[in-house]
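discrete fold record:
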Amino acid sequence: MRALKIVAVNGSPAVSSKTGALVDTLAHTMVTRWPTSTMHRVNVVELAHEIGGAFLPPGPTPAVAEAVALIESADILVAASPIYRGAYTGLFKHLFDLVGQDALVGTPVLLAATGGSERHTLALDHIFRPLFAFFRANTVPTAVYVTQEDFVGPTELSPAVLQRIDAVLASLEWVARTTVD
């Protein structure tokens, strides 16, 4: 596979979070798997004060515009958020409200989320997928969902989750080969 620009969006409103640890693991695994690729990360918490104001004059700040440009130029997008009250975070959604309607057409998207219990797993299919269907992105059929029980330390995921990630990345690789090249 050619060198790919991978952009990971961490929708956590916390500086240190399980979602951030999941994104770190996904990023590390993807760069290890595809060493010629580049990984870029957008953390909504770093843009929290600026995202809401992007809808008012004078528009997005340079930092928000840069984040949106990264997302829009991704060859592969990783969209990760904690599940909060049954959905992704508001900051995550606000950021994607700034993305151009046609900017992600055909872009492979890996969906990932963290949650308090397995009861929130379906949010990936019922909340995340419709958002990226609006953009006509190509979401990977399988997603990564983890709970507190999937961690063996503050930021280390269990071997079972790492195996699931490998399986999801195999699906992502297939989707990327059929849509990116």
